[in-house]
Amino acid sequence: xxxxxxxxxMPASFPPAGNEPLLARARAxxxxxxxxxxPVLSIEDxxxxxxxxxxxxxxxxxxxxxxxxxxxxxxxxxLELEIALEKAGFDRVRVTTVLSPAWTTDWMSEEGxxxxxxxxxxxxxxxxxxxxxxxxADEVTCPRCGSANTVRLAEFGSTSCKALWRCQDCREPFDxxxxx
Amino acid sequence: xxxxxxxxETPLVLYTLRRADDALILGHxxxxxxxxxxxxxxxxxxxxxxxxxxxxxxxLYTYAGEAEGGGRTEDDFAYWRDERxxxxxxxxxxxxxxxxxxxxxxxxxxxxxxxxxxxMMASKDATLAAIAAKSEKEMAYxxxxxxxxxxxxxxxxxxxxxxxxxxxxxxxxxxxxxxxxDASEKALVDAGIAVDLSALRERxxxxxxxxxxxxxxxxxxxxxxxxxxxxxxxxxxxxxxxxELQHVQHTIPGAVW
Lengths: 180, 257
Ligand SMILES: [Zn+2]
Fold this sequence. Notes:
Chain A has 180 residues and is α/β, with parallel strands linked by helices. In chain A, 22% of the residues lie in helices and 19% in strands.
């Protein structure tokens, strides 16, 4: 398992270029939509929101990317995007899904990591090069007391993106947002 | 009433359906454990792995529909092909049996899928490469999880060792089919779209053997191998599985949540 995992930076069109007011407003609205399973995180914090474009006729296209292939939250996120934009006065909205480049936890914003921790979920380990980054779980710190003396209880947690851990110092179990 | 579909199996459509069917059928098998696993954590693990596989299948079926060009959706392929229309390997349709057997089947497949999807990231087909990039990360977790259990059961009690050793002996003859390629697939390899599966086999064997050694299990020699699934000739188990998977759609065609 020694192949390097290539770095996948955010696409160049993100964050918004130019100052078209309609587009800026649509982007701002889209960025308020939250992950239904982790409601403290917006889809922008998560890196799921990839692009928002506005055609000449005023119709809006929002591009999102799934975290995991089978993430059941994607349908809900698409629906909530449509509802949020319609409420904001955009009546022609299209949500499309792209798979490439593949989503990675490296795209989670600093703000997102902070919010996750405050919510009681240990954020994914910091970026590391190579496939070993997926299993960087050995450096998980307790979101409650900050101890690094933690142990994995279960590889697969309450959602695809989480594992279940426990702190050996304060003894609290907690969710860990897995590297991906 | 909707009827069984006849797919126009161009090489690309067939290739994509074979991978989609592997993922759907194995995902369905794992989902049969939901509420029955030996403990809560494992119930969640099996359901999560099922979800990964069904998610991969959805992307692949959607792409098969685009490649076929007839407007078919993921649901058309999943619900409206009969047993002879399915193209999955026989390994994934084998019954769950006990927990050791389920884990061993997952272990053998995950090690294959892990190598396969990593190689497919270099496919010249952009959609398959994109699906590969998502799938390989998911399969890396399946490899680790299943491997940990293989070691625990193999190097566990006399009872757990006997159960997983029996599963290994029974399931090994289904592993050869994972590496089978026909002329239509070889043409896609030449075009840079598909992966040469024969090139993965030694590596797969070495990866699997390393874990089996640690689990105090003997890696079987390759003898006579079962095959047929890639051309629609299945074991008796697939029909029963499909009866359950397709029941609602066949009773109330077009039903939605
Ligand atoms: Zn703690």
